[in-house]
Write a structure and sequence with these properties.
By secondary structure, the protein is mainly alpha-helical. The protein folds into two domains: 53 residues; 31 residues. The chain has three helices and no strands.
Length: 96
């Protein structure tokens, strides 16, 4: 995840075992990371992505329980049903 405004220096406290484990991967060249900082930046990028996906998933759950949204979704599905069916029939003809 590229930084939009450069980099920020931050101090982080963590358990020794976590730091030692990450350090070991860098020292043994098991990780593609060049240094311990790269390990933690990569890990944080992954964690932020997971949190972002989790927010999206929660939004879908909210949509499922939203009566107005469900009504609108049904209306849209009904409106596009004929063209969906046409596309399906066309695709069936094209498949050898």
């Amino acid at each position: 995840m590229p930084a939009a405004r450069g980099k920020v220096r931050a101090t982080v406290r963590m358990p020794h075992l976590l730091y030692d484990g990450a350090r070991q991967f860098v020292d043994c060249a098991v990780s593609p990371a060049k240094n311990i900082n790269d390990v933690f930046v990569t890990a944080m990028c992954g964690y932020v992505k997971v949190l972002g996906r989790s927010q999206i998933d929660r939004s879908f759950v909210e949509m499922k329980e939203d009566a107005d949204y469900q009504k609108e979704a049904r209306l849209i599905a009904e409106e596009f049903s004929p063209s969906d069916w046409e596309a399906f029939e066309f695709a069936e003809r094209e498949i050898p």
